[in-house]
Design a protein that fits this description.
Blueprint (H helix, E strand, L loop, with lengths): L1 H19 L19 E6 L8 E9 L4 E9 L1 E3 L10 E8 L4 E9 L7 E3 L1
Antiparallel strand pairs: 1-2, 2-6, 3-5, 4-7
Length: 121
């Protein structure tokens, strides 16, 4: 009887310790635009994104070529493996920029109703 109690105690302590270890943070479900030949650094808050809640995206990039008029950053939510966005893309404009210049934009928006699996482009 005593051995069973000790075994149950050790087993419950092991479960408690395993559950207390934090999980690895997953990468954001973000994909670069296929027409933009620069690596984007994207972060957002809150993480994870919740449906119908305000989200703030911070986007940084180095522009590979001159942009004469003004550039635009489109932020869209897509169902996983879907071609069309869940709703119309959010547009954020930035001024004319010369090649190899860094940009940083803050894009506030409200997330749409999100499915279980989605990605951001």
């Amino acid at each position: 009887m005593n051995q069973k109690i000790i075994f149950v105690f050790i087993l419950s302590v092991a479960f408690y310790i395993v559950n207390a270890i934090p999980l690895q943070k997953r990468a954001p479900p973000f994909q670069n635009c296929p027409h933009f030949n620069s690596d984007l650094t994207v972060s957002f808050s809150p993480d994870p994104i919740a449906s119908n809640q305000d989200v703030i995206f911070e986007i940084a990039a180095t522009i590979p070529s001159d942009i004469d008029n003004k550039g635009v950053i489109l932020t869209s939510f897509y169902k996983y493996n879907a071609k069309d966005p869940i709703e119309d893309p959010n547009e954020k404009y930035f001024p004319a920029t010369s090649a190899n210049q860094s940009i940083f934009q803050v894009v506030p928006l409200t997330a749409p109703e999100l499915p279980q699996q989605y990605y951001i482009q």
